[in-house]
Amino acid sequence: MPKPANPTPDFFGYADLLSNAERAELATVRDYLESEIKPLFDAAWERAEFPFPAVEKIAKLRLAGYAYPEFGDGRHRGELFSGFLNLELNRIDPSLGVFSGVHTGLAMGSIHGGGSREQRERWLPDMAAMRKIGAFALTEPEGGSDVAGGMRTTARREGDTWVLNGAKRWIGNGTFADLVVVWARDTADGNVKGFVVEKGTPGFTATKIEGKIALRTVQNADITLDEVRVPEADRLQRVGSFRDTAAVLARTRGGVAWQALAVAVRAYELARAYAVDREQFGRPIGSFQLVQDLLVKMLGNITAMFGMVVRLGQLSAAGRDSAEQAALAKAFTTSRMRECVAWARELFGGNGIVLGYEIARFFADAEAVYSFEGTREMNTLIVGKTITGYSAFA
């Protein structure tokens, strides 16, 4: 008699590194996301709309405060739990993962890492409870990978007020965020500084980017800053240069590696279920050698990705992780993710391009995950400099 099938994508049992209580909590979160959140995001993708009723539902899980327990409800979870939580969010929909990552990782992370005690106490409790939603404005129309040296958005000080001018692009949550962390170059000393701009500030305009083929639910914005006046009290007091910005990106880059794993995991889950149920030539296609080959290659990629992100989480928890390790994880996992979603779509045949089969959405969304938070090429050069001692940046 054949052995029962083992469908889990966590083939080597990395989740066993979590405590029983943590695994139970993740199971509760997964069930809630599947029943309450997933249907809203499934319906929103084709319309390129954000399902705002989902925010109140997500807030009930109190997830945004995990990384900042002193400003949430006091609950703290380790880096590894946070990684698996990230996996669960993105497994439902990468757009949900981006919404959460921008709000919790980039916006809250910037304020927590770069703000004064007063600023953290003023903004983070409302953000942890999702009473206020954050965004992070760094990328510019003419500056993506080279934004560190080519930032054109300026900040000019006039007494106790800063005047911001410039433009930002691809700003997730940008059309509806209550608080936007804007990075601008000080005209006096040339250093990059961070500013919290509140919704409704005169001169601040956010316009939704239309016509996307990936992450359609994410409300990316083109932002224009025209003589936007921000009080000195809203400048992040512990940010002195782009190094502080880079520190935020290094922390969140590891989160994108978990996101890439989640996309690959969901693609595998969908492909395996389809292979077991879909019949051709009188039997399930999962019984054919070439289909099994695709599934095994996907599982191999996923297992390698698990090993890298889990170890990165452990190093982070011990305070021993580095920006270069996060860069390698982002470059490697997004490349393997891209292979997995392509193999999964291939396995679905013609049905793989129909949204009703879900894999089409993950196939498209993977392209955005592959590109943002540092392209594969840029992250490769970061790691390459570390292992050779030579900078190959142009």
From TrEMBL:
**Is Flavoprotein there in the keyword field?**
yes
Where do the Acyl-CoA dehydrogenase/oxidase N-terminal domain residues begin and end? Answer: 22-130
The question of whether Transport is a record keyword is answered with no
Keyword terms: FAD, Flavoprotein, Oxidoreductase
Please report the stretch or stretches of sequence annotated as the Acyl-CoA dehydrogenase/oxidase C-terminal domain.
Answer: 247-387
Reported cofactor(s): FAD
Task: Extract the Pfam families matched here.
Answer: Acyl-CoA_dh_1 (PF00441), Acyl-CoA_dh_M (PF02770), Acyl-CoA_dh_N (PF02771)
Similarity comment: Belongs to the acyl-CoA dehydrogenase family.
- The molecule here is called Glutaryl-CoA dehydrogenase
